[in-house]
Design brief:
By secondary structure, the chain is an alpha+beta fold. The chain folds into 3 domains: about 160 residues, P-loop containing nucleotide triphosphate hydrolases (Rossmann fold); about 60 residues; about 120 residues, OB fold (Dihydrolipoamide Acetyltransferase, E2P) (Beta Barrel). The protein has 8 helices and 20 strands. The strands form 4 sheets. It has a 6-stranded mixed sheet, with helices on both faces. α5 links the parallel β7 and β8. α2 crosses α3, α2 runs parallel beside α4 and α3 crosses α4. The chain binds adenosine-5'-triphosphate and magnesium ion. The site of adenosine-5'-triphosphate (ATP) has 12 residues, from β2 and α1.
Length: about 375
């Protein structure tokens, strides 16, 4: 992405209210040229509403929207340089694959040869050349999705909007199509905004992810940033699993800060300072894969707990252990199953869990 730093889509303080309900609340967001950006969040958090405002199908109650430097707030959907692929794909059942792809182009008064050349190029792009004469009901789910994608890209939009693009596909096909869609979108170079409630899908496909909750964007970052440095309890819990310790600040230092925690016999230490006064309550998150489990007590003074193995989920590549602490708190630990015959720890075993100060993330909201 050579021009990744130049903005394609600028959303400025956009809100959408439906009567009393605030579906999207004061969202500002910049999406760069050539980026694949995912809006990620639970059901009803306002993802589709925000995407529809980008497309022009929904009018904002407040705020403005620029595409490639031009204010499109008052421009109707069909005149915006965007294309939205709907969840159901909405292919025309009575038209062939080729006719579906050509549909939008014919309205543009191109010559027959120009339309044909563009249809051919699009079908080649999505590997559907051999299916040009079929009708949508003669295609598999994945093939139908590729046709919908070809149709969306045929008019060479500046921005491609995808609402739950994988929703109609089964799990296996979904992960295959995720990678294929990224390849196609990147080869065309179109800027893409996609909506999903599936964190794995967002992390697999997007360069950056915006985590939405109750109409607001909680955090924007690369997949690794939002996973490793979540800024809120909501983001930490929504993206992957996490253990959250409720602590009280004992000491704030430049190198490290210490907390006390009712669930721990020792102190909890985090790297660097924290943005709170001594005595304040703070939540600290630790991902299950950052924790080491052992039969013997670790040498480190801080950042360990002792407990009993309460539950084990064997998932093939890794296992998830649930450790019950004397306080009753359950701590999750994941271990990678490298050795088939490894002597595993089992139910009711007493274990120590420990982690480094660098693995702990302070949550401020
Ligand atoms: N046309 C409408 N009239 C009234 N309320 C609406 C309308 N469209 C959406 N809403 C409400 O706005 C909120 C956000 O809806 P939206 O469709 O944007 O959610 P979403 O994040 O896309 O959810 P999902 O993952 O379930 O598709 C919901 O509470 C929804 O009921
Ligand atoms: Mg939706």
């Amino acid at each position: 992405m050579s021009d990744a730093a130049s903005p394609m889509l600028e959303i400025r303080h956009i809100s959408k209210r439906f009567g009393e309900l605030s579906a999207v609340n004061n969202v500002s967001l910049t999406i760069n040229k050539g980026e694949i950006f995912a809006l990620l969040g639970g059901s009803g958090c306002g993802k589709t509403t925000l995407l529809r405002m980008m497309s022009g199908f929904e009018t904002p109650s407040e705020g403005s929207l620029l595409i490639d430097g031009e204010d499109v707030s008052k421009v109707p959907p069909y005149q915006r340089p965007v294309n939205m692929m709907f969840q159901s794909y909405a292919l025309f059942p009575h038209l062939t694959v080729a006719q579906n792809v050509a549909f939008g182009l014919k309205q543009d008064k191109l010559s027959k040869a120009q339309v044909q050349a563009q249809v051919d190029a699009m079908l080649k792009l999505v590997h559907m050349t051999d299916y040009a004469k079929r009708k949508p009901n003669q295609l598999s789910g994945g093939q139908r999705q590729r046709v919908a994608l070809a149709r969306s890209l045929a008019k060479q939009p500046k921005v491609l909007l995808l609402d739950e693009p994988m929703a109609a596909l089964d799990k296996k096909l979904r992960s295959q199509m995720q990678l294929e869609l990224v390849d196609i979108v990147e080869s065309v170079g179109v800027t893409c905004v996609m909506v999903t409630h599936d964190q794995e899908e967002a992390m697999t496909m997007a360069n950056r992810v915006g985590v939405m909750h109750e109409g607001e964007i909680m955090q924007v970052g690369s997949p690794s940033e939002i996973y490793e440095f979540p800024n809120s309890r909501h983001t930490a819990e929504f993206i992957g699993s996490v253990n959250i310790f409720s602590t009280k600040v004992l000491h704030v230092g430049a190198e490290a800060s210490q907390m006390s925690c009712a669930d721990m016999a020792c102190r909890l230490t985090v790297e660097g300072g924290v943005n709170a006064l001594e005595g304040a309550q703070l939540e600290v998150a630790i991902r299950p894969e950052k924790i080491t489990m052992a039969r013997t007590r670790p040498e480190q003074e801080d950042n360990w707990v002792q407990g009993k193995i309460h539950d084990i989920a064997y998932l093939g590549g890794h296992s998830v252990y649930h450790i019950k602490l004397p306080s009753g708190m359950i701590v999750m630990v994941t271990t990678t199953n490298i050795n088939r015959h490894a002597q595993r720890l089992t139910w009711e075993d007493d274990v120590y869990l420990y982690w480094s100060a660098a693995s702990a993330v302070v949550l401020y909201q």
